[in-house]
Amino acid sequence: MKLHTPSRLGHALNMIDGLEAAGVAIARIARRRLKPRPRPGRGATLRPGVDTPLWLALVAQIRPFLRVRGAKALLARELALDPSRVSQFFVRRTASPDAERTLQLLGWLGRQRKSLLIEDYLKK
User: Fold this and answer.
1) How far is residue 96's CA from residue 113's CA, in Å, rounded to a whole number?
2) Is 78 within 8 Å of 104 (Cβ atoms)?
3) Cα-atom radius of gyration of the chain, to the nearest Å?
4) What pTM was computed for the model?
5) Where are the alpha helices (H) located in 1-124, listed in sequence order?
6) Angle of helix 83-90 relative to helix 53-62, nearest 10 degrees?
7) Residues 75-87: tens digit of each pLDDT
């Protein structure tokens, strides 16, 4: 018996599948290029790098949407963060957000993609 999934959840699940595949590919590349760091202790906060391939995949998908002037500031406002913190996430890659803001980022990315698809459709 196949369970019904709401359409919004289906879109999120599709994004997660894509992120997982991209994360695996990025992890392979990162392992070749980056020197592995000692594994953090149990319960320690992970820092962006080899140990966080899904975060690196999400960053790679969000960065093209942040090229427009003022996009980082608007995203920072939406996430209720300082704009420099958004730069730490996506430009310097020295930090990653908490779980709630990561979920907000996934929603923001979905809206950005949807508006891009609508713009492309209207151009045709």
Assistant:
1) 22
2) yes
3) 16
4) 0.64
5) 7-33, 53-62, 71-79, 83-90, 99-123
6) 120
7) 999 999 999 999 9
